Amino acid sequence: MMVRDFQSVIGRETREQILKSAGHLPDLLIACVGGGSNAMGLFHAFRDDPGVDFLGVEAGGEGIASGKHAARFADPNVARIGVLHGTKSFVMQTSDGQILETHSISAGLDYPSVGPEHAWLRDQERAGYTYATDEEALEAFQMLSELEGIIPALESSHAVAEAIKRAPLMRREQIIIINLSGRGDKDLQTVIQALGLDED
Fold first, then answer.
1. Which residues share a beta bridge with 132?
2. CA distances from 8 to 15, 39, 161, 165 (A)
3. What DSSP string runs through 13-31?
4. Could you count the other beta carbons within 10 Å of the beta carbon of residue 199?
5. Interacting residues of 63 by C-beta distance below 8 A, sequence separation 6+
6. Which of 20, 123, 126, 191 has the greatest count of CB atoms below 10 A from its CB?
7. Residue 160: its H or E element
8. Residue 196 region, left (φ>0) first, then alpha (ψ -120 to 50), else beta?
């Protein structure tokens, strides 16, 4: 609750700005989810608006089947109720309760648990959750950089990747809001290495 309330300025400002620019609420909010603070900050201001769908995007890493990911909701074989860092939620763990190693190209999503309010939203069917792989996030990172001149954080690139999938399935007049929770300057070295580009 404390983290959500600190981050809630994101949702309040988003709500105010979209009503001013479009005249109505969005149809879909998309945000990346590691621990989930940025997503909760966005979602919270729209919690009582049933016409606004919430979609959280976890780190699919190298794919769910590979085991090298941080997608708690996508892999029921390893995500179980547990307590990590003082919080009861879904935790990636062995059958003996040992915390599993996670993987994501994005350090900010490379976390074995998820905020308990996200688990509650999912149980209430108020929010949906999916994942994007490292490869999809890298593609989204490049696309947004090239087309809009916005360099997103690799965390946010997971949300952009899902928006790229969802937009063609929606009507032209529908509105998607993607939460860009950070700048990608910090991730350029990681992207350069992952794409095998010359640093010069």
1. 59
2. 11, 9, 24, 27
3. HHHHHHHHHHSS--SEEEE
4. 7
5. 69, 133
6. 191
7. helix 154-166
8. left
CA angle 148, 12, 32 (to 5 degrees): 50
- Sign of the C-alpha dihedral computed for residues 83, 86, 89 and 90 taken in this order: negative
Spell out the residues 6+ positions from residue 157 whose beta carbon is closer than 8 angstroms to its own: 32, 106, 132, 137, 138, 140, 141, 144, 184
Tens of each residue's pLDDT in the chain, 200 residues: 778 888 899 999 999 999 999 999 999 999 999 999 999 999 999 999 999 999 999 999 999 999 999 999 998 888 899 999 988 999 999 989 999 999 999 999 999 999 999 999 999 999 999 999 999 999 999 999 999 999 999 999 999 999 999 999 999 999 999 999 888 999 999 999 999 886 55
What beta strand segments (E) does 35-175 contain? 53-61, 79-84, 87-92, 127-133
Closest CA to 180 of 30, 70, 24: 30
